[in-house]
Amino acid sequence: MxxxxxxxxxxxxxxxxxxxxxxxxxxxxxxxGGHSLLPLMKLRLAQPxxxxxxxxxQDLSYIRDAGDHIAIGALTRxxxxxxxxxxxxxxxxxxxxxxxxxDPQVRHRGTIGGSIxxxxxxxxxxxxxxxxxxxxxxxxxxxxxxxxxGQFYQGFLESALAEDEMLTEIRVPKMQGAxxxxxxxxxxxxxxxxVGVAAWRRNGDSGVGLVNMGSTPILATSVSSALSxxxxxxxxxxxxxxxxxxxxxxxxxxxxRTHLAKVLVRRALEEASG
Amino acid sequence: MTVVDTPPAGVIGxxxxxxxxPALLTGEAKYTNDLPIPGALHxxxxxxxxxxxxxxxxxxxxxxAAQGVVAAYTGSDLQALWASPMPCAWPVTPDMxxxxxxxxxxxxACYVGDGVACVLATSETAxxxxxxxxxxxxxxxxxxxxxxxxxxxxxxxxxxxGTNKSYTWDLKIGEDAVxxxxxxxxxxxxxxxxxxxxxxxxxxxxxxxxxxxxxxxDVTLYSATQVPHILKIMAALTCGIPEQQLRVVAPAxxxxxxxxxxxxxxxxxxxxxxxKHGAPVRWNEERTENSQATIxxxxxxxxIELAADSNGKLTAxxxxxxxxxxxxxxxxxxxxxxxxxxxxxxxxxxxxxYDFSCTSVFTTMxxxxxxxxxxxxxxxxxxxxxxxxxxxxxxxxxxxxxxxNFIQADQFPYTAMxxxxxxxxxxxxxxxKAMEMVGYADLRARQTTQNVDGATKRLGIGISSYFEMCGLxxxxxxxxxxxxxxxxxxxxxxxxxxNKVQVVTGATPHGQGxxxxxxxxxxxxxxxxxEDVDVLHSDTAISPLGLDTYGSRSLVVGGVAIDMACDRxxxxxxxxxxxxxxxxxxxxxxxxxxxxxKGSPDKQAPLAGVAFAAFxxxxxxxxxxxxxxxxxxxxxxxxxxxxxxxxxxVEVDTETGQVDVVQYVAxxxxxxxxxxxxxxxxxxxGVIQGLAQALFxxxxxxxxxxxxxxxxxxxxxxxxxxxxxVTTGHTIxxxxxxxLGVKGIGEAGTIGAAPAVINAVVDALSGLGVTxxxxxxxPLNVWTAIQAAQSTTVQxxxx
Amino acid sequence: MQITVTVNGTTHAHDVxxxxxxxxxxxxxxxxTGTNIGCDTSSCGACTVHLNGASVKSCTVLAVQAxxxxxxxxxxxxxxxxxxxxxxxxMENHGLxxxxxxxxxxxxxxxxxxxxxxxTEQDVRLGLEGNLCRCTGYHNIVKSVLAAAEGANA
Lengths: 274, 799, 154
What we know:
The complex is a heterotrimer of chains A (274), B (799) and C (154).
Chain A: E1 7-10, H1 14-24, E2 28-31, H2 37-42, E3 50-53, E4 63-65, E5 69-73, H3 78-82, H4 85-90, H5 92-98, H6 104-109, H7 112-118, H8 124-131, E6 135-140, E7 143-148, H9 149-152, E8 153-155, E9 158-159, E10 166-173, E11 179-185, E12 195-202, E13 205-211, E14 218-219, H10 221-228, H11 233-238, H12 254-273
Parallel strand pairs in A: 1-3, 2-3
Antiparallel strand pairs in A: 4-5, 5-10, 6-7, 6-10, 8-9, 11-12, 12-13, 13-14
Chain B: H1 21-25, E1 41-47, E2 53-59, H2 61-65, E3 69-74, E4 108-109, E5 115-121, H3 124-131, E6 135-140, H4 147-151, E7 165-173, H5 175-184, E8 187-198, E9 207-212, E10 219-223, H6 228-239, E11 246-249, H7 265-277, E12 281-284, H8 287-293, E13 297-308, E14 314-326, H9 336-341, E15 354-362, H10 376-394, H11 398-405, E16 414-415, E17 421-422, H12 427-438, H13 440-450, E18 457-467, H14 475-480, E19 489-495, E20 501-505, H15 514-526, E21 533-536, H16 554-581, E22 588-591, E23 594-597, E24 600-606, H17 607-616, E25 628-634, E26 643-653, E27 659-669, H18 676-695, E28 727-730, H19 748-764, H20 779-798
Parallel strand pairs in B: 1-12, 10-11, 14-15, 20-21, 27-28
Antiparallel strand pairs in B: 1-5, 2-4, 2-6, 3-5, 7-15, 8-13, 9-10, 9-12, 13-14, 16-17, 18-26, 19-20, 19-25, 22-23, 23-24, 26-27
Helix pairs in contact in B: 10-11, 10-19, 15-16, 16-17, 18-19
Chain C: E1 2-7, E2 10-15, H1 22-29, E3 48-51, E4 54-57, E5 70-72, H2 85-92, H3 102-115, H4 121-127, H5 139-153
Parallel strand pairs in C: 1-5
Antiparallel strand pairs in C: 1-2, 3-4, 3-5
């Protein structure tokens, strides 16, 4: 299995990467860790004519305390997210979710930015950062802009990033004192979730993100509304699939996914409340 | 006959580490695609994207124009290369339908992945790129993916045979007795089970390289195969190569599980094209190709009925099987159901009342063939699940129904109603040991407390007691089943002048550790260090005679042949030693590598000296030829009959359908063990493969005949994180039919596992009214079964 | 494209097509065939090597991405004729049968212990979630890794 031929260029900085993408047009793609793109290219389901390698843009690999949030460079590898002391203290849900991505080899290579930019509803981190109310920073030819996670996911593998924009940072609000839970339901540990739930609760607030419950990662706002309206966990969990549009595939029917979402949201809320 | 483990006297019975390992652990071992072959052309196949389609036209021009391409061919272009169609060596009935099958399809593609054209190029990349440029016009025809629909012949796949039915094969013993038994039965059960299609998924995909000597005329075929000897004969016949000009080598082989027990299109294409082009031709299979173009396993629909008397004692068994052959008959495709046909009464004492019938059909899916256990896991699954159903009918514990029906230890050797003789066994002892190891009584007590109304984590205990026939096999029995070859194995044992030993075996290891085990047999026999025993194998130039490794036959046939060859070498050595010591051969003892005169132990002739004397031949007794070597071809008098009881403990999450295996105990009896380390390894791997069928794996086809699970991302071979520890235990009941007292163990784990797991899942959910459970018991399937059972319960409640 | 890669301590410079996967580069250009290929989808882990000390699947890394980096393959693990302790542990615990998954399994296991020197059985099982074996049922692989950890900690 070998990808179709392509041209390869390496960017030394975000600016250079953006200039290269602009130069090569819509046949070009960024590659960071390559763990979303290369498997598709090997199966020739993706055949970009140019790859712009941003893997060497060292200054985009960091996890920093930025006051009310933690700032994570887009090229930070899953392994670094998974082992971050800073995240353990301020956003343990994200650290924990990162430890469920793929397998250790994938986590050594794959990046948080790559995972989010790929915008796969079946991936763990898009839904988790969505639940956490993250903000993504995109850089384009005309500078940077912030995109709230809630506005980022626009369709199946479609994000709000323009073709000449690059995701550079993920900002995750600090969640100290929040209860949290990450429920990943799959058949093999290395697989994508059949259904996943990322949830947190603090006082009256909550956030619940659903993995693989539609063409985009889903923010289960009805669950949070039910909770803030004083509903029980069971009542809230019954609303788990209100925003979802689950599909059927080899592992689950839409009906079963809906059922699983309710069970897993209930369990997540119980754990987050415990 | 069951005895407690006794400390071994020599190296046999010790957990000796494997000599194979250092090369494998360091990357030094060479698999077929590791071999450097200068000047090789690379083969790539163009495969049908349709399950069933007429080939209207093939345009090779763009491929031929591509960089690095040397040649491109359609099936018709290559017909002159074949002396006959691809072989099927098991015509199970005289009227079996076997459509002609060539390495490349001629007028019709019959499954997704069927080769329709090929490209030869100077690199693998160039060949694969060019294969994508071949333009094939197809006229798609309806796919046939449902076995029962296939039987209706609404869409006939092979026009020349006019039907999708290949054969019906019966084994009917006491037909009137069966009818009577069902009429008189106090209890009956009637169950339908589906053996889902499986992909063998050896970790090494297949790989082939054919290296011709254009002027000398010889050709060497390297292949990731389990069967270099069988391949040599079949490839010589199919390609019209004089057999003496063909050498087949199986280098390091990365697992087979039956999937490399075949003669494949790519082997024949490399061979034929290498001769046509006068250059080496090689092909490496990709995983996606492996899923489509390497044989599949299982794929049967089983209907089993049991009749029992008021004590739950079996009085008759009736089985109807519908077996999916796939698109064509590969090497032993039609015989797979026959290997299970004798075992549908399992480990139970049954009168002459047995009615088995198998009908086999063609479908537009990848051909099926032998996959680890081949017929026996299917049979064991059916009888062991049906016995649980019978236990529910009778209202007794599943272990109790088995106890009432076991063939008793004192009945061995036991002549079964099928006419086969079971060599030795003690089922109750194996079951007792498994129950003790797992803590059966405590588990049942815990289950009562745990599985209360409303419980969402339910405990289940599943039992599987199995008997299997392996060690293929007595040639005369194979003849009676119309198998196209014998079941013997060849061995040569040769003592070199320096008292090192060379063993040549016809068995072909691909992970089983034959080099280690064979050297242990020889070491004990000849009193030499196992490290001084060299084992040669897997190359027809070195080991010209053999029938290879499959069907758990290597030790019980090939290993026994070595043991017997050692005896013959010793017979000869004894004559020379007697000559040296000036005594009668009968007056000599042999122990620890030394001949000594009975009653005068200080009069000795070490084997080393005898070997050197045999080599120099300066002073040999009259009529004794120089050198110490012996060749034995051993045809076993019976199958080998390993048995055991597996107990699986699961916890089922009734809200999600998730099954967690919390404990797995396997008690297996393979007679005497040469190397318990290797025996346990075979059981661990076999159990997990069976457990994978029960919980994870399924080759899923859509209605158009597309395989939807063609990668390891969709076809769920489990990882370490997904499976439990396997606790092994053994009873030892030596086989009386061979001098080593051994039985096969390569497939036992797989045979025992699936029914133990599924019986446990059903047991866990019995309080919810669940009795039906498909494989794999995926979360979706378990949840769906619970929903179905509960809606039935609700309806009954409302009625 | 011209790349320079250090493999098992030796520097190699080659001109490669950008689409060349690291595993093909190692096997076909550098000539180290110990690293195996078992799938097309980054699922099986047979091709696992260390890239700058951490396990990666070399079928999902482009050779050009490894430019200037350091790679260790299974051939680089033993010290002369002395097996690496992980290799030794696999041998002593019968952690391999056909051996095809073994190089990747050993490389994943050494990386695992590097990051977690005191793993529990569950840590080992989860740490090897990206490596498939069809022969051993994993029982003795897990035992091997635990034994290697114990040996290193002894």
